[in-house]
Records
---
Amino acid sequence: MVSLGVIFPPDLAPEQLRPVAMAAEESGLDELWVWEDCFAESGIATAAAVLAWTERLRVGIGLLPVPLRNVALTAMELATLARLFPGRLMPGVGHGVLDWMGQVGARVPSPMTLLAEYTTALRQLLQGQTISTSGRYVRLDAVTLAWPPQSVPPVLVGAVGPRTLALAGAVGDGVILTEQTTEDQLPEAVRQVLAGRTDAGRSGFDAPLEVVTFVKVAGRPSAADVAARVSRFVEAGATTVALLSVGEDAPPLADFARFAGQQVRPLLGLSPS
């Protein structure tokens, strides 16, 4: 079954987050997505706040830029949240904006290698494994989380191009696709993720591949129009559609969250959250 969410973008001040989170919770939305942009807001801090304010809402982080974060620290933070709020966290990782990574002295010569090493180690740590590795970028010496999550969250990988899509399948539990991926392009993107999973020899998954798509909604369209667009993404392979409200005439984000939960979600035939 598809999940419907809205996105809290980092160009909004942090103090605007709580009313949006409460509107999403009260209106029956499935998810609220935050993300970490350089010099704006922390994805971990905003996710923790939303999880604490709400009781059932799932929170996605799309995404944490891996050059900024030691993988052991990220594993500790995610494990803490996953234990405090089991089953409600969907973290994503990615390259980050390369210019920003350079601006803070964190840009690496091979972002693909870093993302592969990082995602692999992060998933293993969250699963409670003891990890020793000496990669090009990720180096761990017998690291074990003291408090691994009992309900292990999926680790999603942000991707646009074919190499990163394949990598998401090879090392992640799913993929986060930005608004750059249209509904017409989505089936091929999913195929590339699945091919990456197959090429890596991964099989026997209990859970289906998570395919999260970010979809822009401009202005104030009708609920029927938004529902129809969401349905096209679902038919193309999305398991979660997260709506990004944009435009000078867009409603306040808390109002948009209520609109999505109370008017769009029922048109998709989703059962009450």
---
Amino acid sequence: MFRSLRFRLPAFFLAGIVIALAIATALALRLFQDYARAQSIRELRREAIGVEELYAKKAGLKAVPYGPRVLERTTGDRIYYTGLTIFPGQTSGLRELPPGVVDVEALPRESNTVFEFTPPGEERPYVAVARPIDLGGSRFGAIVVAKPRADVRERWLTLLQRLALAGAGALLIAGGLAWYLSRRVAAPMRGLARAADEIAVGRYDVEVPEVPGGGEIGHLADRFREMASRLAEADERERNFLMSVSHELRTPLTAIRGHVEALREGVVEDPELRTQSLDVIAAEAERLSRLVGDILDLAKLDSHRFTLLQEEVDMEALTERAYTSFSEEARRRAIVYRRDVSAHPVIVTDGDRVLQIISNLLSNAFRWTPDGGLIELSLAQQNGSVCVGVRDSGPGIAADERERIFRPFVSRDGSGGTGLGLAIARELANALGGQIELETQQGQGSRFRLLLPSD
């Protein structure tokens, strides 16, 4: 539990708030302590000045002008006097301080001295302000106004209590918000984690939770859903590929095995029949070689472990070579097979790879063009590119199939083909710095255009 995102998110969130509150409280208390002490000293100074003026004006009278306890109730503080008697025949009536607590002679004139002391018979310290009483140029004594230091502390203790209450309220609110946010974040993350566990064991048809509000988590969920869909599609393609390759490998192997057994057992004695059997074995072996070569080419393209040559290539001669390779099949199937050359470019590229691309496009065209149909190979140069076009009169390609046919292992017909030709062609075109474009309309054929840079 303590390692889960649902716990750690609010825990870190609350920890940050607690630290921030602690720092803010410490700063506030320190500032308030200074303020409270300064405020208390200002009050003591005002009171000391007032009491000193009252007693200085009445000095020499036989009666104390004000009852000391009345003054203390008025000010709320203790009032002390130390020094000579300023009222003939009697004391000041104020609380007396023993000698030595305040050095009366050292007090600055017209000034207030702040100090701390512990009154006789008490244990708690007081904060005090001393104000000298001067009469006729002579110093008689000093008025001392004091309050317990604990009274000053009580102010910031009250503030501390209020800050603690406010902090507790803030933590409750923040805790609720953190819990809510953690649920909003952790719930979809747990759903994604469960989906990842399912995918890890090979189950790709998982349900990825919807994340309300979008954001980064929503984006992650969308990408994860897309990844699961692509993995499922890749798994399906892999199964189809294995079935297709198994069929492709089994068919020629079965033919080769049958003819080899017949030749070995002497079943075929006629020299002409023996020659036909050997021809079948050679053709099926070539078919196997071509299939393995396509698979290896695709693997190299996917892992970028192939090399490209840089040589001058006469594109007219190269297209003529590709055209000638399919002439016999066109004649045999009565296909109108023609070429249209309107440019004679020479470019720097890998000629063998370009020939492989054009051959794959022509092979695809012959697969889909019915007997007696039309296939045209064209060569042109325009806008800094060399364009090799392959047009057929096949059934055309549906809109939802136009991107899919370039994926590996996708074959639209039931002939057992591996569906590698167009995938290899596009990957090779991209590797050469070019691209393959498709123009098609159902019922009216297709046209593939290989575009290569001419510079």
